[in-house]
Amino acid sequence: MNESWEQAREAFVRGIALFGDGQYEPADEAFTQALALAPGRAASCATRGIGY
Fold it and tell me: Does the global pTM surpass 0.70?
């Protein structure tokens, strides 16, 4: 696993935690970061859409 993929995973997990805490804007920022780091990751695309 490369470094950007690991960073994307960390941002994704952070986004899930923030979303669960009702912090939707910071969660969206984390999901956006995850998507930028790993644009092919379907989960990042899907969770980013949930925030809207």
Answer: yes
